[in-house]
Amino acid sequence: MYKSIIIGTGPAGLTAAIYLARANLNPLIIEGPQPGGQLTTTTEVENFPGFIDGIQGPELMDNMRKQAERFGAEFRTGWVNSVDMGQRPFKLSVEGIGDVEAETLIISTGATAKYLGIPGEQDNIGRGVSTCATCDGFFFRNKEIVVVGGGDSALEEANFLTRFASKVTLVHRRGELRASKIMQDRARANDKIEWALNRTPVEVTAGEQGVTGIKLLNNDTGAEEVIPASGVFVAIGHHPNTGFLNNQLTTDPNGYIVTNPGTSETNVQGIFACGDVQDTRYRQAITAAGSGCMAAMDCEKYIESLEHSAVVI
Question: Is 136 an annotated catalytic residue?
Answer without folding.
Answer: yes
